[in-house]
Amino acid sequence: MQPAPPVFRFAPSPNGRLHLGHALSALTNEALARRFGGRLLLRIEDIDLTRCRPELVEGIEADLAWLGIRFEPGFRRQSQHFDDYAGALGRLRRRGLVYPCFCSRQEIRNAVAARETATGQPWPVDPDGAPLYPGSCKGLASDNAAQRIAAGEPYVLRLDMAAALAAAALPLSYTVFDADDARQSVPAAPERWGDVVLARKDVPTSYHLAVTVDDALQGVTHVVRGRDLEAATDVHVLLQHLLGLPTPLYHFHRLLLDDDGQKLAKSRDSQGLADLRADGITATEIRRQLGFA
Ligand code: GLU
After folding, report:
1. Nearest 10 degrees: CA dihedral of 210, 212, 214, 218?
2. What is the arrangement of strands in the sheet containing 156-159, beginning at the earlier edge strand?
3. At what angle do helices 207-217 and 82-94 cross, to 10 degrees?
4. In this structure, are strands 98-101 and 7-10 parallel, antiparallel, or unpaired?
5. pLDDT at 268
6. 12 close to ligand 1 (CB < 6 Angstrom)
């Protein structure tokens, strides 16, 4: 019997049109999938219902078709699968690894400032530079939390990182691969993210939870993503262990930077593929420019 082919996926969030950075990611997925004889899936990560506008999904499909990238027909939209994420969250909750948090951003800032004043030390930040959650709601009595939820107070659900690390088989690691399929094991250190948010009151999941659940449900074996998501992978590896899901192989590709050295992002007016196309640039030129002649 033939072994099952590897499975790759490109998973954009439709909160803007695709730009050159997305093209690099999609083309890297395409090139590696082709090289390893893999399947290539498209997944739309539209859990943020306020930012992900439906017309942008059509735009993304048009941009990818113009680039000439062929995905397997049909694609998964995360907004249609909230039950899957709620199920995974429920399993973590029943194991006591998740707690509700009622803190506003301002309350977190105030708590962090108070601790910095008290200790005279800077408060630790996560790999994205945000202060670690100081744990103010971690010790809330469950009946107090239940009353506040029943009263309609907004909250998020956080992973109890210390409890999660204790529950996971340690030490955590995963394997990276390159274009020649050379593989290397790297350690994962999810504790540097602190008590990450796994769900919000309005959206019963978060990026970390949805991406972990979907990669497993879709049988993804090879995750190809930008270096900006390398540190976040540590959280995904931890969640895979806690949920009994397989850990895919990972490859982190380079990032395209603006002239000022910032990562390309739609919010910073990076040129969208649709704008480039309107300016008469061809898909072949984009492929060549990004090193995929
Ligand atoms: N949806 C994520 C983004 O557009 C990337 C998905 C992933 O590779 O985990 O940044």
Report:
1. 180
2. 98-101, 156-159, 197-200
3. 110
4. unpaired
5. 54
6. yes
Half-sphere exposure of 16 toward its Cβ, with a 13 Å CA cutoff?
Answer: 16
45 Cβ below 6 A of ligand 1: yes
- Alpha-carbon distance of 102 to 253, in angstroms, equals 37
CA triple 183-33-286, angle to 5 deg: 115
Look at ligand 1, atom 9, and give the residue with the nearest C-alpha.
211
Question: Model's pTM, two decimal places?
Answer: 0.95
Q: From CA 67, how far away is CA 42, in angstroms rounded?
A: 14
Question: Can you read off the two tokens belonging to residue 91?
Answer: 């399993």
Structure tokens at 196: 């990450």
- Residue 131 in contact with residue 97, Cβ under 8 Å? no
Per-residue pLDDT, 261:
73
pLDDT for 265: 65
Tokens 């492929």 found at? 287
Q: How far is CA 157 from the centre of its chain?
A: 17
pLDDT band with cut points at 50, 70 and 90 for residue 38: very high
Please answer whether residues 272 and 279 qualify as being in contact, where contact means their C-beta atoms are separated by less than 8 angstroms. no
